[in-house]
Amino acid sequence: MSDEWGAFADRIAVHAQNYLDGLTRLAGGEGGDAILPLLLVEVAQVSSAGAQLGASQDVILSGNWEPHLSEDPDVDPLRTALAERLGPVDDYAEVFDPYKDTSVTPYRLSDDLSAVAADLNHGLRHYRAGRPLEALWWWQYSYFNTWGNHAGAAMRALQALVAHTRLDVAEERTTV
Questions:
Q1: Which H, E and C letters describe the chain, residue by residue?
Q2: Domain of 9: which CATH number?
Q3: What's the mean per-residue pLDDT of the chain?
Q4: Model confidence at 2, in pLDDT bands (50, 70, 90)?
Q5: N or C: which end of the chain has fewer CB within 10 A?
């Protein structure tokens, strides 16, 4: 593996861990009422890492196979905690693929955010096992296949929610 790939894996691993740490803190109650803008920041930052994966050349594994890992940790407790924190804004509508499937699909922010976490965590497990190329392959593959879509959809929903909280203000009444 080249030093360039190793350095790239190091950078993506930092983004992945930061996302997991931030999401866990927010699901646990940190951030208080500022959860929506803080989630927007977390998703935007990890999406930057995804864009870097998308812009890089394809990562090809020797033998074109992924080494086996034990079962990934369950992200359902994280998803459940996020759903509870998000409450009525958890559900939203999204167009899955604006070029192939333009029908509106129901989504949940908690599902999207935890799906991203699951894919990033899987790559981190390869990275921590001393297989940075496998980690990069997984992060890139899953970015195109799953977590990139979930992060993009969540970012659009979170941006809309934050915009609504800032722009949808009640008109002030003045008495004459």
A1: CCHHHHHHHHHHHHHHHHHHHHHHHHHCCCCHHHHHHHHHHHHHHHHHHHHHHHHCCCCCCHHHCCCCCCCCCCCHHHHHHHHHHHHHHCEEEEEEECCCEEEEEEEEHHHHHHHHHHHHHHHHHHHHCCCHHHHHHHHHHHHHHHHHHHHHHHHHHHHHHHHHHHHCCCCCCCCC
A2: 1.20.120.1550
A3: 90
A4: confident
A5: C
